[in-house]
From TrEMBL:
GO BP field: carbohydrate derivative metabolic process; carbohydrate metabolic process; generation of precursor metabolites and energy; nicotinamide nucleotide metabolic process; organic acid metabolic process; purine nucleotide metabolic process; sulfur compound biosynthetic process
Name of this protein: Ribulose-phosphate 3-epimerase protein with N-terminal transketolase domain
Keywords: Carbohydrate metabolism, Iron, Isomerase, Manganese, Metal-binding, Thiamine pyrophosphate, Transferase, Zinc
Record has Nucleus as a keyword: no
Annotated GO MF terms: metal ion binding; racemase and epimerase activity, acting on carbohydrates and derivatives; transketolase activity
Subunit note: Homodimer.
Gene: tktA
Protein family according to the UniProt entry: Belongs to the transketolase family.
Keyword Isomerase appears in the UniProt entry: yes
Organism: Nitrososphaera viennensis EN76
Entry superkingdom: Archaea
Length: 223
C-alpha cells in the first residue's frame, strides 16, 4: 500500500493570497488542498470560514480537505457542505457522540468524506469506535492546533502507531492524516507510524521554493 497524499496548508508562509498559493501547488501535482478553518474560540487564532472556501472552490478542482478548528461544528456543518469541501474533519474535543453522528450522516448524504481530528494530548474517544467504519480520515495532530510553522512533537509517533492499530481492529478503512510540523525529516517518521495523508504548511510555503519543496516531500514518501 503505497498510495499517499500531499496536502499543502495554505495558511502557512507569507500573507500572499490563497488563490496564488493554490495555483502554485496545483502546478506541482499535489493531491489535495488542506484548509485550516479557525474561529478564534476553539483555537487562539482566526483564519477563514466557509465563505472563503466557497470563493476558493472556483480556483481548482483539487480535493478540498477542510480541517475545522471551531467550536460547535454541528451548528456550522451545512456551511462547509455547501462550500463543497471533499473531506470535512471536525475535532473530537469539540463534539459529543450524538453531534458527531449527525455531522457524519450529513456529510455522507452529501457525498463528502467525514473526518475526525485529535489534539496531541487527546485519545480517540470510546464513542467513536461504533462509527469508525464510516470515517474516511483521522487527523492525528502533531502540534497543538492554532498556527502553522510549529515544531513537530515526536511523542505523537508511538501514539499514531497505537491509534492506527486500534482503529483498524475496529474496522477503520480510511486514512491517517499527519498534521503539524511535517517536513522531509518528519514525513518518513509519520509514514512509518501509519499516516498516508501529509499536511505540509511551512515545508511548502516557507522559505524554500514550492517546486523543490514538493519534490523533496515526494522523494521522502516514496522510499
Ligand atoms: C495547525 C494546522 C496545521 C498547520 C500545518 O493548527 O492545523 O494544518 O497549518 O502547518 P505546518 O506544516 O507549518 O505545521
Ligand atoms: Zn490542519
Amino acid at each position: 500500500e503505497s498510495e499517499y497524499f500531499i496536502a499543502p496548508s495554505i495558511i502557512a508562509g507569507e500573507k500572499e493570497n490563497y488563490e496564488d498559493k493554490i495555483r502554485k501547488v496545483e502546478r506541482e501535482g499535489v493531491e489535495m488542498i488542506h484548509l485550516d478553518v479557525m474561529d478564534g474560540k476553539f483555537v487562539p487564532n482566526t483564519t477563514f470560514l466557509a465563505d472563503t472556501i466557497k470563493r476558493l472552490r472556483r480556483v481548482t478542482v483539487l480535493p478540498f480537505d477542510a480541517h475545522l478548528m471551531i467550536e460547535n461544528p454541528l451548528a456550522h456543518i451545512d456551511e462547509y457542505i455547501d462550500a463543497r469541501c471533499d473531506v470535512i474533519t471536525v475535532h473530537a474535543e469539540a463534539c459529543n457522540e450524538d453531534e458527531f453522528v449527525q455531522i457524519q450522516d450529513r456529510c455522507l448524504a452529501a457525498g463528502i468524506s467525514p473526518g475526525i481530528a485529535i489534539n496531541p494530548k487527546t485519545d480517540i474517544p470510546e464513542w467513536l469506535y461504533p462509527h469508525i467504519s464510516n470515517v474516511d480520515v483521522v487527523i492525528v495532530m502533531s502540534v497543538n492546533p492554532g498556527f502553522a510553522g510549529q515544531k513537530f512533537m515526536p511523542e505523537v509517533l508511538p501514539k499514531m502507531v497505537a491509534v492506527n492499530k486500534k482503529l483498524r481492529e475496529h474496522g477503520f478503512k480510511g486514512y491517517i492524516e499527519a498534521d503539524g510540523g511535517i517536513d522531509s525529516t518528519t514525513l518518513p517518521q509519520v509514514y512509518d507510524a501509519g499516516a498516508r495523508i501529509f499536511v505540509a504548511g511551512n515545508a511548502v510555503y516557507g522559505n524554500v521554493d514550492v517546486h523543490t519543496a514538493v519534490i523533496q516531500l515526494r522523494h521522502k514518501a516514496a522510499v
